[in-house]
């Protein structure tokens, strides 16, 4: 499970979609960009292939809840 999920707008103009997010998973900090298309671009270290689908699904759910609700 991911913890300490945080996000902020990528642009000062809040009408332009795009967000920067950070979170921890198994004690490792990850950072990425969430684009309006739902594409996730990792900044620095990315999660292992075996965990990536699980993590991406959780990020999509969190972004839907926080941004689009």
UniProtKB/TrEMBL annotation:
One Pfam short name: DUF5342
Domain of life of the organism encoding this protein: Bacteria
Protein name, UniProt field: YheE family protein
């Amino acid at each position: 499970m991911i913890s300490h999920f945080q996000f902020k707008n990528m642009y000062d103009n809040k009408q332009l979609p795009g967000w920067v997010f950070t979170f921890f998973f198994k004690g490792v900090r990850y950072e990425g960009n969430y684009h309006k298309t739902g594409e996730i671009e990792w900044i620095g270290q990315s999660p292992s292939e075996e965990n990536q689908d699980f993590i991406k699904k959780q990020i999509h759910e969190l972004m839907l809840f926080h941004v689009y609700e």
